[in-house]
Structures are given as C-alpha cells and as structure tokens.
Specification:
The protein is α+β, with helices and mostly antiparallel strands. Helix content is 27%, strand content 30%.
C-alpha cells in the first residue's frame, strides 16, 4: 500500500455538523455529496473566510511541525480545561513537548504542553497556531454550521489511497472507519501490516472464543515482534512510571525505546525493560469491547480523561469482560497491564 500525493477538492457545506460529521456537496456544478469525519482531520480557517479540512497529523508529522514551525519565541494558543484559549510563547521544545510561558508574564513558572494531547490547527487569517481540545473543536464545529448559511467554500485535502491486497488488515481496519478511504484509515492500515496483523486474522468471528482471537491480534503480534519484552520510562528513585492514562490503571509500557526515553526525560528518570507474562487477554482500544465500555461511561471512543475515576472505571469494565490489560497501536498510549504480577523487570 502507498499514499499518493495530497490532492484537494472544492465543496460547499450541505448542512449542520452532526456529531463529528459534516455533509458536503460538490462545488462548481458537481452535485456529488460526501460526509467527512472531522475526528481525523485538521480544520483550518483560510484568509477569505472559508474552511480547509486536512488530514490530521501523525505523531511524527506533528513533531516535525513543532520543531520546524515553532522556534523559540513563537506565540500560540492553547485550549484551557474550563473552556476558552490562552496565549503562550515557546521557550524551547523537546520532540513533541513544548515548554512555554505566558508572554505577558514571562517570569511566571514554565508550563509543559504535550502536542499529542491536542489537535493542532492554524488560523490562517491571523497566522496563529492553535492547540485545540475536544471542547474548542466543538466550538469550531458550531462555526462551520453557521458558515453553511453563507455558502462558503470548503477545501478538502486528502490522500488518494492505493489499498493493495485485501488481507486481514484491510478487512479489520476498514470495518472500524466510517470514511474509507481516509488518511486516518490508511495510517491504521500501515500500522497493522507493519506489526504483521495481515498474517493473522483468518479466524471467523462465529463464537466468543474466536472474537477474542481477533481482539488479540495486535497484542499477539507485538508480543511476537518483541519476544515479550517492552520498555518503560520511569523515575529512578521510586520506579513510578509515566503515561497518558488513556487505557486504564496499571503498569504502562511501550514497544518503542524512543518513546520510553521521552517519558523518562519527563520525570528525570531512566528506561527499564520488562517482560510480560505470555497468554494475557488484552483489549484493543479500537475494538468493540473497549468502545462499548467507554460509551457506558459517557465517552466517545477517542476521548479520555486524566481523572483517576476514569481509569478506575475503565479498568473495572475491562476486567469484568475478562481482560488483563489494554493495548493501543499508538506507542505514546502504549500498553497497560492491570496486575503488576504479570510483568517482571529484566535484570
């Protein structure tokens, strides 16, 4: 599979945003109607009042953007927990992490802003970079709905996807995404094939047992790829680790040494290797069970909270369904093992 050059098409908004989807109709005499899922997109406002919808950055692309477009002194806006935006100024960057201060009070304490916790959009009318959360995205959805009445032009940038062989990864990934093809779906397809998911998945989901086999495909391939050994960035003194907390409560690990090194630097710690007990039943965070539990908690599949209660409820729900942990195909979110007895530090 490969991604061709980025291409764009012109549309007009055909109606209000419904959930995370915006209906569009072809511009310039083209009556083609499409629905665009905004969750996997950047939404930029252009300098003539229109809208540009672009593929969301991957982690690597976002890091490159921060490193190239946000030198020392760059002003930018960041969504605040209670709503609204606050302006900051770059002091320095470390990979995907931005250390910043309030430009109006440069002597105040520095703040640390993790790029992957936000959507990064650029308001081209002012040139200001915006780090947006779900709340500020919802406000932008409202604005898009208002623009529908003005018949503004919407430019949709996308990748022309060459799907390649319709293997297990193709079937698994396509079943998860409403919009196909899309840049987000293509990225998931690449990740699945990279870890060897296309070599499995021939099981038929006719029984609960076979459903568990499908659910464990990503985890099984990561275990095989790493021979059961994973990495953890942790404090040197007490051994406490770091992580986004998006998968529940427990021991967080990653299969990327570079990601563990990043988290270790966050706590001035070190990277340790851990061997995970074989045979664990791990929930895929893009799987059906994970999504159903989050829905019961009042969250969308892509949402999470730093509230400890969120992690506790998610962990309880997954344990009740027989899972020993959870796994994401994003190395920043990584892996969580609920019971520390199931992991052992490699001496």
């Amino acid at each position: 599979m490969k991604l061709a050059e980025l291409f764009e098409a012109q549309y007009q908004i055909a109606g209000p945003v419904r959930g995370d989807e915006v209906p569009l109709i072809g511009n310039q005499g083209d009556s083609t109607e499409i629905v665009v899922d905004l969750r996997d997109k950047r939404i930029d406002m252009d300098n003539v009042g229109g809208v540009v919808i672009r593929p969301k950055y991957t982690e690597a692309e976002q890091t490159r953007f921060i490193q190239k477009q946000m030198p020392v002194g760059t002003p930018f806006m960041v969504a605040q927990p209670g709503g609204g935006m606050a302006e900051y100024q770059v002091v320095r960057t470390q990979g995907n992490l931005i250390i910043a201060t309030d430009p109006n009070s440069p002597d105040d304490a520095e703040v640390r802003i993790h790029g992957m916790n936000y959507y990064i959009d650029v308001d081209n009318s002012s040139g200001m970079i915006h780090f947006e959360d779900e709340r500020s995205r919802a406000e932008k959805y409202r604005v898009i709905g208002e623009l529908a009445r003005k018949k503004v032009t919407v430019t949709v940038e996308s990748y022309e996807l060459e799907e390649g062989e319709k293997d297990a990864c193709y079937r698994k990934v396509k079943s998860r995404y409403k919009i196909w093809p899309s840049a987000y779906a293509s990225g998931a397809l690449v990740k699945c094939r990279k870890v060897g998911g296309c070599q499995q998945g021939h099981q038929k989901k006719k029984t609960n047992e076979n459903s568990k086999l499908v659910e464990n495909q990503l985890w099984d391939n990561l275990m095989n790829m790493n021979d059961g050994v994973f990495y953890r960035g942790q404090r040197s003194s007490r051994g406490g680790g770091t992580g986004l907390g998006a998968l529940g409560n427990g021991v967080y690990l990653t299969w990327k040494p570079s990601m563990a090194e990043f988290f270790a630097k966050e706590v001035d710690g070190e990277v340790k290797e851990y061997r995970v007990k074989p045979g664990l039943n791990m929930a895929d965070n893009a799987g059906k069970d994970f999504g159903e539990i989050k829905k019961e908690m009042g969250f969308q599949p892509w949402e999470y909270s730093n509230d400890p209660m969120f992690g506790g409820m998610l962990t309880m729900g997954l344990k009740d369904r027989g899972y020993d942990g959870a796994v994401s195909d994003n190395p920043a979110e990584g892996i969580v093992i609920f019971d520390s007895e199931n992991v052992k530090e490699v001496e």
